[in-house]
Every structure is written in structure tokens, then in C-alpha cells.
Queue: 2 jobs
Job 1
Amino acid sequence: MTPAARISAAIEVLDDLIQRRRPASDALKDWGLSRRFAGSKDRAAIASLVYDALRRRASSAFAMAAETPRALVLGMLAGLRGLSAEEIALLCSGENHAPMPLDAEEWGRLAAFSLDGAPDWIGADVPEWLWPAFAAGFGRDAVGEGQALAGRAPIDIRANRLKSSRDALMADLSHASPEPGAWSPDALRFQPGHDGRGPSLQAEPSFFAGGFEIQDEGSQLVTLLAGAQPGQTVIDLCAGAGGKTLALAALMGNQGRLFATDLDSRRLAPLHERLARSGATNVEIRIPRSRGHEPLIDLAGQVDLALVDAPCTGSGTWRRNPDAKWRVRPGALAERVKDQAEVLARAARLLKPGGRIAYITCSMLPDENDEAIRAFLARHAGFAAVPLTQVLASTEGDFGLLARFATEFGLQLSPHRTGTDGFYLACTQRIA
Ligand SMILES: C[S@@+](CC[C@H](N)C(=O)[O-])C[C@H]1O[C@@H](n2cnc3c(N)ncnc32)[C@H](O)[C@@H]1O
């Protein structure tokens, strides 16, 4: 397919996902199934166009004064990919499956591409209804935070200390031009190409050998700061597919006991294979047998560290999942806040005196970050917040600079601040 035909295809896919309110991945899959002529490079390029258009959905619609799929794609080509009106006009020839030629209004709007007079939520490409909750945490930086979340994300890997090292992987993957991560000692970063695609790291022999996992550097950092020590009893209550479980096992050097569970046992399924590849030997997966069943009840009073990687809106990962930004519905935030309170209360019941909860979200919204901790502390008199300075000082390495990103109870990472996904971490300790 020509670059112009790919643009037409992206407009078609966007039309489908907007009309039928379906996930971008479903619309892309269906498009591919009914267009067998499209090769894998075409599909990847079309997906990249669709995701880029979703990243800048509000600002493109404003600059183009239209919210049609065509306006969103053309606006994104100017606003995100930096194409001039002339370059876009050349692509829109109307021939050989290319989009129809630009009209005078489109030409003028692409040439000017202006967000002058746009409200902040549009400048930030954050849904209007969510803007007050989002802006609450960032004050004057809120628009810049939103803009950084509307960009593309790099691909980060975590060197698995049980099998490899960052230096060894730096050499092994040199053909893909890795850079060391700025914060996590185990992170390597790969920048996406002009078309938004990154290297196929999961096809690397060192990946199959367990040398690394794909994991955003922010996710690595909050897991490191959670403070798991070799020999401890650690639980990962919201383990999902185990991204943080694997990192915890490596940080513990396979010493001590690590238990992984999740409310949704199906989500734990990939963890079995990932554990085998990683060489982690101190992990036990516990499956809840029924609603309300506590699969870790035998550990009550023995747990040193409970990692609560809580269910949340995922607003910190909008760079990787821009579809989710526009699909999140009013009401979802209140539901997640309820889930967060529930899982924090569970963690509290299992800790031993002096034990800690490391509460983590991939959210940018104070309601599910500091406010969740404030509510937890109000309900649990026997717990106190661990000051961030203490958390940073007790982690091996030099993390003092992160104190700049302190919130009332914890730490907020973001693409704008740390070049990572948006993650929040707060630690609390059982004092009675
Ligand atoms: C952010 S995801 C976990 C991601 C995972 N820790 C990782 O690093 O790959 C949150 C998980 O919490 C689970 N969850 C939701 N409510 C829960 C609850 N009340 N107790 C335990 N897990 C819960 C969800 O099924 C989901 O897998």
C-alpha cells in the first residue's frame, strides 16, 4: 500500500471505531481480516496512524474545526507528525486509494494549525469531564502534563538481574540502539521510529532466554522504591500478568517468599510461563477460589510488604493506550476508588506489625492517589504514612532528585516530569 492509501485506511478504521464505539484494537483487527492484501508493515503503519490520531483527538478537532475521522487524521499529520499543508495536500490526491483532495478550509486550517483560544482540556488532549480531576494534581503544569501524555512512548525493558544485566543487554541489543534509563538501574530505552514503531524486542534470543522483560521505566522505579528485601515475606495483591511480581522476585534475588494473586484469576495465567522464563523460584501463585475468598489468609500477620498495584483509570498510560483516554466513562473513577479502598483494606489485614503497604497506581488523578491514601489512613488508625524522603533514602542508589516530585503522601511520576509513564507510589506502615 502507498503511504496515501494507508492514510485512507486509517480514516476508515477511525470511522468504524467512533461510529460503533468499539476499541481501536478490534476495529484494526477487523479491518485487517477483511483486507488480506495488506501486509504486516501496512497494518502496523495504519495502527500507528490511528493511535496517533487518538492521542491528539481533541486538539486536532479544534484546529480543524471538525471532529470527523478525516479531520482527526489530517490534523494529527500536521499537529503531531509535523507535516506541512503542502505535504499533506500531496498525499491527498484522490487517486489510487488516496484521500480526496483538501478543500480550501482544510488547507487554511492545516497551514495555520492553531490552538489559539482553545480551552485547557483541549490544549492538553484530556477528556473535558476529567479535566478538573486531572488538573487538580498539577496546577499550572497541567496542560504540559496532558500534552506529554498525548505524545508517543518509548519502549523500555527491565534487565532481569536473575539472568542478565543492563550492561550485558546494552551490548547484546546494540543493533537496536538502546540508551540507559535515566532512573532505574535496570532500564534500557528504545525510541520509536518516525512511524511510531519500535524494535521487535520480543523476537530477541535474550528475551526468550529470560534476560529481560518489557516494562516501562516508571513501573520499574515504583517497584524498586517499594523496598522489597531478600528474605522477606512479600505479597503482590494485584499481580495481573505479573509485571511487578517478576521485578520483585529479581530484586529479592529469589530469597524469601513472594506470593502473587489477583481478584481475576484469568489475568494471572500468563504469569506461569513468564516465571519459568525469568528464573524466579521464590514465587507462589495463589488463585482466589470464589468471590470473597482470601487466598492469602494463612499469611495473616506474617507479611513484611504488601504491594498493591491497584486497579485505576490508567490515565498514566495514555501515551501507550490513547484509546482508553476517550473510552473512560464518568463513573469509572468512583468505581476504581471503591476498588482501591477494598484492596488496601485487604492488605492491611495481612501485614505484620511494622509491615508496609506500597500503594501504586498508573494514574495521574489525585482522587485515586493521595486521596486514596488519605481515606485509608482515616479508616486505619494503626497505620502511618512513610515520608517519601525516607523511602528514597532507604533505597540503594541515588534517588534524592525524585523528592521534587513529592505529593502530600507519595511520589508522582509522569512523562512530563520523569519521561516515564504516569505512576504514583505511597508507602504506609503498620505501627500498631
Ligand atoms: C494495574 S493492574 C495490575 C498490573 C500488574 N501488577 C502488573 O504489573 O503487570 C490491577 C489488577 O488489579 C486487579 N484487581 C482489581 N480489583 C482487585 C481487588 N479488589 N483485589 C485484588 N486485585 C484486584 C485487576 O484484576 C488487575 O489485574
Job 2
Amino acid sequence: MRRKVVAGNWKMNGSSEFARAYCLEISSHLPVDDIDVVLFPPFPYLGIVALSDVAMGGQDCSVNASGAFTGDVSTEMLRDVGARYVLLGHSERRVMHGESDELVAQKCLSALKADLIPVLCVGESMQEREAGAAFDVVSGQVNAVLSVLSKAQLKRLVIAYEPVWAIGTGLTATPDQAQEMHQFIRASIANVDAEGAEVVSILYGGSVKSDNACELFAKNDIDGALVGGASLKVEEFIAICRARQQV
Ligand SMILES: O=C[C@H](O)COP(=O)(O)O
């Protein structure tokens, strides 16, 4: 059975005071029955979120275990501070830090070996969509990871489809556009492992808000959401979690 996941990616926002107040507020609404609620705060605030009941993850990880890698954070370090998830291959990392499909695949492997759940982000740019290449791009990103995982590892993956043109722009993919890509991703998983396709949760990300969440969650292959901007307002994030619970 696929888990329903609602995750908040704070990106590079917040402060220790923000994190404390946020966790206090959200904790009073947890647990949300049948929903996995996850926060991805910036690294310095993981320790604060760890004091609450909210599941959390790192926004990235290294493929290396330790050593002279200034600025990097290892999977074991994430585990050590209580993280259960890690966000990998976000388009902001792919574009601004030049992360390749191959590197993202290696990071997924490292995360799984450390018993972290990787949330693999995939998605096409507007230029790629307009050129009719959206499915090829997403297929390449997904298959690069599937090709290095065993069937057992694949079943522990979460995938987030985030069309780059919908991130932080207010331009949400229509529920039909999102469903079409989610169904395609699920079919790509089924090509490798039919059982895996039934258990891997596929989240949608890109300008998700409480007022568009229900229509997205109503689609068969949309299991949850990866929320950026709207997750910075705790009431709004809770409303999205409730929407997932209701649909
Ligand atoms: O990780 C989250 C996504 O980039 C979505 O961000 P957004 O909700 O601000 O569009």
C-alpha cells in the first residue's frame, strides 16, 4: 500500500526562533491519521525539529561517508541527528549545483544504505515541456536511479514530480497534467518491478497550496505533496495535510 506523504521543504528559509515556534504549533496537530508529515529544514535547524514529533529529513546529502569534503553532510550525520528522509535531485540542486542524474543516483544509494528514505525529485523545465521532451527528461531522471537500485531498495524510494516551471511561480500543473506524468512514472517503475510500482509513493510539487491541494490529491497516482513556499506558513501547511487526509 502506498503511503500518503505531505512534506514541507523550507529551502534556505527560517531561523531558530521560526523553527521552534513552527514545531510547537505543528506538534499540536499531530499525528494526522494515515499521513506521513515530513519537514526538510535547513541543516542548522534539524536539531530543533528533532526535538518535536515531526519526521524530518536533510535537503541533500553527500555520497561520501566522512573526510575532507567542506560544506557536505553525510547520510550517517543525518541519521545521527534523527533524520529519516533526505531530499535528493531537487531542481535547485541540479541547476545551481550542476548535480547530474548519475550523482543523484549515487546519493540515493548512499541514503538507502544508511537507512534513510530518499525523496527523489524529478521534473522538466518549461523549455523541455514546450519542446515535447517532458516525458523523455523525467524518464531519464527516474531510470538513472532505478538502474542502480535493487528491487528491495526501489520499494523504499519516494519520488516527487516537480515541473521546474511550477516551482515558486504560482503556475501549478493542472491535476490532469500532473496525473499524466505520475502515471507515466509509475509505469516506468512497473517496467522494472511491478510490485514496486504499487508501493512507491509519488508526490507532486510546484506551487501546491491549500486551495489547489484537494483537486491534485483526488488523482489516482498523486499520493501526496512536496510543498515549498506554502510550507513556511504553518497553518497553510497543516491545511494541506488535512486536505490529503480528506481526499
Ligand atoms: O521542494 C519544493 C518545491 O520546490 C515546490 O516549491 P513551491 O511549493 O514553492 O513551488
